[in-house]
Design brief:
Layout (H helix, E strand, L loop, with lengths): L1 E6 L4 E8 L2 E5 L8 E2 L1 E5 L2 E4 L1 H5 L6 E3 L16 H20 L3 E8 L5 H13 L3 E7 H13 L3 E8 L4 E9 L2 E10 L4 H15 L9 H18 L4 E8 L2 E8 H26 L9 E4 L6 H11 L3 E2 L7 H15 L8 E2 L4 E4 L5 E5 L4 E2 L1 E7 L8 E8 L9 E9 L11 E7 L5 E7 L5 E6 L7 H14 L1 H25 L6 H19 L3 H16 L2 H11 L15
Helix pairs in contact: 2-3, 2-11, 4-9, 5-6, 5-7, 7-8, 11-12, 11-13, 12-13
Length: 574
């Protein structure tokens, strides 16, 4: 049984694992480590990844479903978590074939600003895909793990994570293998998708067209062309690409100047969020040791230039922008299961921790799913004249009243000088260490008197209990897992071969001969139940197809994505 790290991304997803102490990404889509988070439903078939783009039916396809996690919206009678489960199932099956071992559990990353509803939906998606979630960890934290362990760095670093659909900015302290989140912020509707839409709108306006006149399918195809332009631009002065609209071809243009004009509003929003996080952390940007830049949008030179100009600190981008988050999740997964990385003991607070205040309300200090280790402070005062002590009641739970939460501990701070109500200043600090042990310290500022109490807020099964259950389940179901893996191999192989047969006409004769030969070998090995050999042939087919699939997709986007025409009066020429 294998444990992996999964970056379930808005535009692309990545799976990674630790092999001999080294984190590695797993090719899950035609030999590539990134799988587009795209799902197409066609003729009762669920298609994921690059093939979903290639065979895309605008009326039956969904992009960027992660943006809708935790909501009640449905697409094709499916919830966002059900669609996300399709993506997770696909990359899980592909990864299992590569590892030649079933995947039973994973650490899955989420944006740092994901709400409880969004985190719960992510866990539900994993459950539907038959993946046990060991932890949900924040994406910038995962990136920091990958960066920190790889470079053996210590100090205070910011993580600038601009992906296809979300933006996160976090400040972390890296210290002796411990990663402490100091402050975090973000926007789950800010990313490359928004930039693609702006590039589309810019070109439509230039051509005298109105984005409001496009139906959902036409907008989807337009954003794909815009995305292609964005990815092709790089350091080129200008790039062009055709867009078919109402049976008529238009030329979209993207230059460095246009990109700067279109993108700056979004980049400014990311920098405003970053400014707030620096303020929340009470840290001057000049105090940090660098900014780790990750996420697909980091490939744009303009992004890194804007961040560097704003903060005048070193931009650290020497780890894979696409893979960093999954690699960090894999390292954390390895630490939870093998315990070989004792210096890396990250966790999340399972429930909100707080203090009962006057009237029975709860002042929530460390919120549920906060990355740990973490420390938070609150300042309290007396509510009666000449009050010389304060009683503290520490509770755990999500309810607003202390009586509805779990009581963890009570203690009293005595010796406060008698003074008017509201004059005393008592600072209470909640600190959760890497082992999940909560330390609460209260001290009065004027006298320095203090009181400390240790409580253990973790409830339910311990890590050892959970591992024992997983090991027992694996032992009892070993035969079933082997059979299931073989069935998945047969199904995956047939899907790949059907897809390759559909594009044989677009291959050179040399490529076609190679593919047909490997397909024959694959079928023979499956028929003879030689599954180890079948995996080898299946991997060869993916390697061959990966060499030219992107080129075919690009050609199809420009040449064949034609929407049913309206009347000539409904179109305008450029």
């Amino acid at each position: 049984m294998s444990t992996v790290g999964i970056d379930l991304g808005t535009t692309a997803s990545v799976v990674a694992f630790v092999q001999h102490g080294v984190p590695r990404s797993i090719p899950t889509d035609v030999g590539k480590v990134t799988t587009p988070s795209v799902v197409t439903y066609e003729n009762g078939e669920t298609i994921v990844g690059r093939e979903a783009i290639y065979r895309m039916n605008p009326a039956r396809s969904i992009f960027s479903v992660k943006r809708f996690m935790g909501s009640n919206v449905k697409f094709f009678d499916k919830t966002p978590e059900e669609i996300s489960a399709e993506i997770l199932s696909y990359i899980k099956t592909s990864a299992e074939l590569q590892l030649r071992n079933p995947i039973d559990s994973a650490v899955i990353t989420v944006p740092a600003h994901f709400s409880d509803a969004q985190r719960t939906a992510t866990k539900r998606a994993a459950s539907i895909a038959n993946i046990k979630v060991l932890r949900l960890i924040n994406e910038p934290t995962a990136a920091a793990i990958a960066f920190g362990l790889d470079k053996k760095k210590e100090g205070i670093y910011a993580i600038y994570d601009l992906g296809g659909g979300t933006f996160d900015f976090s400040i972390l302290r890296l210290m002796s293998g411990v990663f402490q989140v100091i402050a975090t912020g973000g926007d789950n509707s800010l990313g490359g998708d928004d930039l693609d839409s702006s590039i589309l709108e810019y070109n439509l306006k230039k051509l005298g067209l109105d984005v409001g006149e496009l139906n959902d399918g036409e907008q989807m195809l337009g954003r794909l062309v815009a995305k292609s332009l964005k990815e092709k631009l790089g350091n080129h002065g200008e790039v062009r690409k055709n867009y078919i609209y109402h049976n008529k071809s238009y030329e979209f243009i993207l230059s460095q100047k246009i990109m700067e004009d279109v993108a700056q509003v979004y980049l400014n929003r990311t920098l405003e969020i970053a400014d707030r996080v620096f303020s929340d952390a009470a840290i001057d940007p000049r105090e940090i040791d660098g900014i780790v830049a990750v996420g697909g949008m980091i490939k744009m030179p303009l992004v890194k230039t804007s961040v560097k100009n704003r903060y005048q600190v070193e931009i650290l981008d020497d780890i894979s922008a696409d893979e960093a988050v999954a690699l960090g999740a894999a390292i954390h997964a390895d630490s939870l299961t093998s315990k070989s990385r004792s210096m890396l003991l990250l966790d999340v607070a399972p429930l909100t921790l707080g203090i009962e205040t006057f009237g029975g309300n709860v002042d929530k200090i460390i919120h549920r799913n906060s990355a740990i280790p973490i420390a938070q402070r609150r300042e309290y005062t007396t509510y009666q004249d000449k009050q010389i002590g304060i009683k503290f009641h520490i509770v755990q739970g999500e309810r607003p009243l202390a009586r509805d939460c779990r009581s963890l501990a009570k203690f009293e701070l005595n010796g406060i000088p008698p003074m008017s109500a509201g004059m005393a200043r008592v600072v209470v600090e909640f600190s959760v260490d890497v082992n999940g042990i909560l330390s609460v310290k209260a001290h009065e500022k004027s006298t320095g008197i203090s009181q400390t109490v240790l409580v253990e807020p973790s409830s339910g099964l311990s890590e050892d209990d959970m591992r024992a259950i997983l090991e027992s389940a694996a032992k009892n179901h070993n035969h079933d897992e082997i059979e299931a893996k073989n069935v998945r191999l047969r199904v995956e192989s047939e899907r790949i071969m059907r897809f390759l047969e559909s594009i044989l006409s677009e291959m050179s004769q040399l490529q076609k001969n190679a593919v047909l030969g490997e397909m024959q070998n694959l079928r023979q090995s499956i028929d003879s139940e030689n599954y180890a050999e079948a995996v080898e042939y299946k991997n060869k087919l993916e390697a061959i197809s990966g060499q030219f699939l992107d080129e075919i997709i690009s050609r199809r986007l420009s040449r064949e994505m034609i929407i049913a025409p309206l009347s000539a009066a409904d179109t305008k020429s450029s």
